[in-house]
Every structure is written in structure tokens, then in C-alpha cells.
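Entry type: protein chain
Record version: 2
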Amino acid sequence: MHTITLSAIDTSALYSLIGLLVGLVVIAGIILMKPMPNTAKYAAMGILLAVFSIFSVALYQSYTSQLIWDDKSVSLNVPLYAQTLDAEDIDWQGAYIADLTTQTDLKPKWRTNGLGLPGYSLGWFTLQNKRRALLSVVGAKDGSQWVMIIPTHKNYLMMISVEQPERALALLHSKNHS
């Protein structure tokens, strides 16, 4: 079993998520103080609790995200969008590293289902080159935004940010995955 730890979210994304959670708490307080029928109050609080829980889980899991694989399966453990594939569904030798600041055709264009915060893109996106991709990508550091790109045979890419992309790519390429 092999494991690659994904990059944790940066401070701008962390502050955005914390601000969102604080905003939800403020809205909950307003709803509790506002005179309204109990049914409406409970429904609104239930929705807020669900949204608060989802974003709290995303925040927590963003620090424990991993790519794990063995000879049979591959698991991308990211918040809310975890995927498990058969090992033969991955194009192991086609994996590569790209800098999104220079390879603009790989930049996310449209978020189809996911979370887009300053400094953190998570979920399903359509790229500038019209390909579909599952992203767990943190913001640029030192003027570059290095990501590891892992093609699948299921017609989408996995794009992940890792702390040491060259080392992670060498680990992916070093094992015979056929």
C-alpha cells in the first residue's frame, strides 16, 4: 500500500471557510431571535445545521486528504468527493506534474459540483481545455501552482496538490501497475 499526503489548504482558504462558518452561526442567531412560526424556524435551523456540518467536515478533512493505492484499487480521500477506482482505471504512466500558472489550458474554468474558495478548489470542474477533472488543488505558492495530474480511463483527470510533486510522481511511476 502506498500513500501520498495532499497539500493542506492555505490560510486564505482557511479564513474563508472559518468566515463562512461564523456567518452561518450569525444567521442561526438571527433566525432564533426573529419572530416566525416554529415549523419555519426548525426547518431553517435544520438546513443551517446541515450546511454548517458539511463545511465543518470539509475543513477537517482538508487536512487529512490522501491518495492511497495498491495493486487492486486507488482511493482519493478528499473532503466530500472521495473516489475509489480499480487500479486498471488509472493511466499510471500518463501521470505528470503541471504548473497551472503557465499551463493555462489546465486551469479550472467552470465548477460543476464543488467548492471554490480563494486558494482552494475542490470537486468537479471543467477545465479551460474542456476536459472534466476532479480537483483538490490549493492556491499558488511562490508564483507557481504545481499540481499532479493523474489521467483515468473513465474520461476525467484527477488533479491534486501535493507538497513534493516530483517525489510523489516518482512514487507513482516506480511501481509496475499493469
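Comment: Residues 17 and 23 are 10 Å apart (CA to CA).
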